[in-house]
Amino acid sequence: MLDLTGKKALVTGIANNRSIAWGIAQQLHKAGANIGITYLPDEKGKMEKKVAELVEPLNPSLFLPCNVQNEEQVKSTFETIHQKWGNLDILIHCLAFANKDDLSGDFSQTSRTGFQTALDVSTYSLIQLAGAAKPLMTQGGSVVTLSYLGAIRAIPNYNVMGVAKAGLEASVRYLAAELGPSQIRVNAISAGPIRTLASSAVGGILDMIHHVEKVAPLRRTVTQIEVGNTAAFLCSDLASGITGQVLYVDAGYEIMGM
Q: I want to staple 36 with a disulfide (CB 3.0 to 4.6 A). Which of 62, 73, 112, 117 is the partner?
């Protein structure tokens, strides 16, 4: 029943084969979506080569550089989508970053620039990309972003990223309210801890994963593919009545008191 055939999906945030964005891209492709990929460019082109090789089996029809802190690249990305695809049905936002120094120690010592960077890349970018996608989602659409429990609970070593994710979840609600009349749905997936390039910057990530495996109702953590399955569901007609929500895909850990 889950069929995305003919849907055009832009996936951001793939860094390597451990990325949650990679799990999502695979499941969207499996459901029949036409995939477009953005990557974070670097001077030596290493990221472009790495991501291109990884996503080759998905046969993406768009492969574009997009640094969300570069307004011209964002503008160029969506101009290319308009020129090559005409419209857009699905936007997957898997972007987050904070300076490592701001992910440890006392939260009150977060630097101003560190705070601005974390909120810019991790929170504002959703608003930015959704705004750019809005005029292209002429037949309605689905926007999905990734959050974490640190948005609503104090998690050791998560610090400024918790504030960024809280802002992200609030942005989901405001965007859902704005875009709803255009039949564009906006939701977040709050995934359990998964060992990725991004999470490796969080001190004690392996301890967090082992703790979830002991405490979560399912006695395990989740996989990138499980998150990908939920994203594919949210992007499909099966989720046509769901918007402005944060869905927990964390083996049930969020419900536990101790």
A: 62
Does residue 252 have a known ligand-binding role? Answer: no
Token code pair at residue 95: 């972007």
Residue from 161, 175, 162, 171 nearest 124 by CA: 171
User: pLDDT averaged over the chain?
Assistant: 95
Which residues in 126-153 are b (16+ Cβ under 10 Å) and which e? bbbbbebbbebbeeebbbbbbbbbbbee
pLDDT digits (tens, 9 = 90+) for 7-18: 999 999 999 999
Residue 256's CB is within 10 A of a number of other CB atoms, namely 11
In whole angstroms, what is the distance from residue 134 CA to residue 127 CA? 10
Residues labelled catalytic: 148, 158
pTM of the model: 0.95
Q: At 93, which helix (H) or strand (E)?
A: strand 90-93
Residue 19 is assigned to a ligand binding site: yes
Give 162-218 pLDDT, tens digit per residue. 999 999 999 999 999 999 999 999 999 999 988 665 555 555 677 888 999 999 999
Question: Beta strand pairing status for 184-191 and 62-65?
Answer: unpaired
**Choices 3.40.50.2300, 3.30.720.120, 3.40.50.720, 3.40.50.620: CATH for 8-250:** 3.40.50.720
- Tell me the CB-side half-sphere exposure of residue 162, using CA atoms within 13 A: 17
> What pLDDT, on a 0 to 100 scale, did the predictor assign at position 197?
52
Kindly give the interhelix angle for 20-30 and 46-55, rounded to the nearest 10 degrees.
40
**Is 20 known as a binding-site position?**
yes
Question: Residues 76-86: pLDDT tens digits?
Answer: 999 999 999 99
Q: Distance between CA 203 and CA 71 in Å, rounded?
A: 32
